[in-house]
Write a structure and sequence with these properties.
By secondary structure, the chain is of the alpha+beta class. Helices cover about 35% and strands about 20% of the residues. It is built from 21 helices and 26 strands. A seven-stranded mixed beta sheet has the order 2-3-4-1-7-8-9. The chain has a seven-stranded antiparallel beta sheet with strand order 15-12-13-14-11-10-16, with helices on one face. α9 packs antiparallel against α14. The N and C termini lie far apart (about 70 Å).
Length: about 700
């Protein structure tokens, strides 16, 4: 008898089959003496569509909402049905005695495997492979320690609740908005509050009123000090006051009233979880969250260089301590050799900041595996991301950075000035980053309050020392509005408010972009005209993150066995009814923000401009029309009779025409024209020369071809 192993992807199945000796390759599985290894292609089974419950739901109608089936049905997804049939046939084989679920060790991986087993009516016990890396060693150890499938029942319940909640809220509210306002408007349990946060920031920016201010600093010879008020603010909003201060201070003497020197110790940053890695990659390289996820998946699955990516923990477990040296040896190459080798010569004893079992749930932090790296095998993006992970891992075993922080206070003519500086005593873990580490947070703001900067080197100064103002420097400034969210900042806010999971946040951002509710402008995320209107059309409860965060917390409680599925889903049903009722009773209006100047040649309606991966698309909004064409400029070979530039080809009610972009001259294109251009002549010659003998006269061939074309 054999065991059937169900992996999530063909690439993972291939590796498991190789490691576990299943070398016989078939179209949809690998087979060996003990294991038959097959795969899903993501989800093979999903929740049924409304029309699967009742054919009338195929047409979207406001009066049919909300659609809330008593019991949710499942269906085999059409696009991957061939693979489902293959898995189903394997499950029914007489020599298959048990199933080993080897899908991703996470909530979504558990869900897709259970749905496949349920649809195929597999009602026997099964086992679970739960591993955090794809190395040969991890796979072998995982198979040696398979867990009972029932151990993950609570995780499956949590995943099922998430899927059904998203179906009920997303599907009903999206249909309600689309029907009510006659536009493609999408809403969801997580995407709408995320859009809401972007919109709140936009309102803060548009309502912001900038003010001019001055800051004053004095050159005291060996150092500079900045003025500040008793409140600590160094900005002066009264121009007259700054001018008076300058006159008061120029050339005067003062005294150093305080010199404080504090020794500070700065510990290494925590290891990466997915969200922190996405933030860093966005800040340093401009990677989108989705791009980071995709590159990281290759490092995990294809190169086997890093551990499981979709983790929310930044700590390691105690049973991993014995593997740390082996992992350091695997990365001690190239630029990392000089950093890692000194660590290998001594025993490693990581503290609670690195190893903490209580802060690891399903998966530990993202760290390198024991697989030796070949840096030249990595793409540029893979190399950048791997560099972040390796340096962060190595820094975990370096001592804290130590420095002296110096704070100086100076009194001049009754005014207070301050200066701050640092002196590095031991770079510690910062050595891994070349002595530097740009750990900029997500400060949305913004505005310095003019209290002076830290990090400058200060000379040896003593309390009571007299100083003279050599020069008084007045710098003008202007208050700045909050910054728009970058993906790094948005990920931080989503994490803070419990919106989504590390595995889903990138997809949520991409969904908002693809649905044209937000757009990327450089590194910033901006709401579109559609997004600005949409957030006002949905119920207030769905705009803010609080409600969704409560749901996400309840899903986590269900996964831990502290909550129940039925009460949660009842709450989702009640909320869906309220949300749909709110849309039905709304008296708001929606105006398409992307109406173009072009008209549909079929029905005359103004076309809507849509952004796609292939460029702009012009689409007719009329339901019974369906006309669409490229929105990019199409230049013809015909030149303007006035300026001789190529004319743009356009389409109107009367058909194709050309127009000069500069002069505005328009000419119609007659479809019945017998004119043959040079390119068409060449095509005709080639066409008919093939039909004649090699010795035929070319002139006669061309003449015959042209005559034939005209007669046609």
């Amino acid at each position: 008898m054999k065991a059937l192993v169900l992996a999530e992807k063909p690439s993972v199945a291939r590796e498991i089959a190789r490691v576990m000796g299943s070398r016989e390759k078939h179209k949809s599985y690998f087979e060996g003496p003990k294991y038959v290894v097959t795969w899903a292609l993501g989800h093979l089974v999903g929740l049924a569509e409304p029309e699967d419950y009742d054919h009338k739901y195929q047409t979207w109608a406001l009066e049919d909402l909300p659609i809330l089936p008593d019991k949710m049905k499942h269906k085999v997804l059409r696009e991957t049905s061939h693979q489902y049939k293959a898995v189903q046939a394997l499950l029914k084989r007489k020599d298959i005695s048990e199933v080993i679920v080897a899908t991703d060790a996470a909530r979504e991986g558990e869900l897709l495997a259970r749905w496949i087993l349920n649809m195929a009516k597999w009602n026997k016990p099964f086992k679970r492979l739960w591993i955090s890396s794809q190395t040969d060693k991890a796979i072998k150890e995982g198979f040696a320690g398979l867990k009972p499938g029932s151990q993950f029942d609570r995780l499956y319940e949590s995943a099922r609740c998430r899927a059904e909640a998203d179906w009920m809220v997303g599907l009903n509210v999206t249909r309600a908005l689309t029907c009510k306002f006659n536009a493609q408007l999408s809403a969801g349990r997580v995407q709408t509050p995320t859009l809401g946060m972007i919109m709140e920031r936009e309102k803060e920016i548009t309502s912001f009123r900038s003010q001019e201010y001055d800051t004053i600093s004095v050159d005291l010879g060996s150092f500079e000090a900045s003025w500040r008020a008793s409140s600590g603010d160094g900005r002066i909003f009264d121009k007259g006051q700054s001018e008076k201060l300058k006159q008061k201070l120029d050339g005067r003497t003062g005294v150093i009233t305080s010199v404080k020197k504090t020794e500070k110790s700065e510990p290494h940053p925590l290891a990466y979880d997915l969200t922190e890695l996405q933030r860093d990659a966005n800040r340093r390289f401009g990677f989108s969250a989705k791009q980071t996820s995709n590159v990281l998946q290759k490092l995990y699955e294809q190169h086997k260089l890093v551990t499981y990516p979709r983790t929310d923990s930044r700590y390691l477990t105690s049973d991993m301590v014995s593997t740390l040296k082996e992992r350091l040896e695997s990365v001690a190459v190239g630029p990392y050799a000089a950093l890692a080798r000194p660590l290998l010569r001594k025993s490693l004893s990581p503290g609670k900041r690195v190893v903490d079992d209580s802060k690891v749930t399903d998966h530990h932090a993202i760290i390198p595996t024991e697989e030796t790296v070949l840096l030249n095998k990595l793409s540029t993006d893979e190399r950048k991301l791997y560099d972040l992970i390796v340096r962060r891992f190595i820094s975990l075993f370096y001592p804290p950075a130590k420095y002296d922080a110096v704070s100086v206070t100076v009194q001049i003519e009754g005014e207070t000035f301050s200066a701050k500086g640092t002196t590095v005593k031991d770079s510690g873990w910062r050595e891994v980053y070349g002595g530097d580490f740009d750990d900029e947070g997500d400060d949305d703001n913004q505005d310095s309050n003019g209290t002076g900067s830290s990090g400058k080197l200060l000379p040896e100064l003593t309390q009571g020392e007299k100083v003279t103002v050599r020069r008084c420097i007045v710098k003008p400034g202007r208050t700045q509005p909050p910054k728009r969210y970058t993906e790094a900042a948005l990920l931080s806010q989503m994490e803070k408010h419990g919106l989504g999971t590390p595995a889903t946040r990138a997809d949520i951002i991409e969904k908002l972009v693809s649905s044209d509710t937000i757009e990327r402008q450089g590194a910033s995320l901006h709401p579109t005209g559609k997004g600005k209107q949409l957030i006002d059309l949905v119920a207030p409860a769905l705009r803010t993150p609080e409600l969704t965060a409560l749901w996400e917390a309840e899903l986590e409680r269900i996964a831990k066995g502290q909550g129940k599925a039925d009460p949660f889903l009842r709450g989702i049903r009640d909320m869906t009814k309220e949300l749909v009722a709110g849309v039905k009773g709304s008296d708001a209006e929606y105006k398409p923000h992307n109406v173009s100047n072009s008209h549909c040649p079929d029905c005359g309606t103004r076309l809507l401009e849509k952004k796609t991966k292939r460029g702009k698309l012009l689409v007719c909004p009329s339901e019974d029309c369906g006309y669409k064409r490229s929105g990019e400029k199409r230049l013809s070979n015909r030149r303007c009779p006035q300026c001789h530039k190529k004319m743009e080809m356009k389409e109107g009610k009367a058909g194709l025409y050309v127009q000069c972009l500069g002069c505005g001259i328009t000419e119609t294109l007659n479809k019945d024209s017998k004119h043959v251009n040079k390119r068409e002549e060449r095509k005709l010659v080639q066409k008919y020369s093939k039909q004649e003998s090699i010795g035929s006269n070319l002139g006669e061939l061309l003449k015959a071809a042209l005559e034939k074309n005209k007669s046609e």
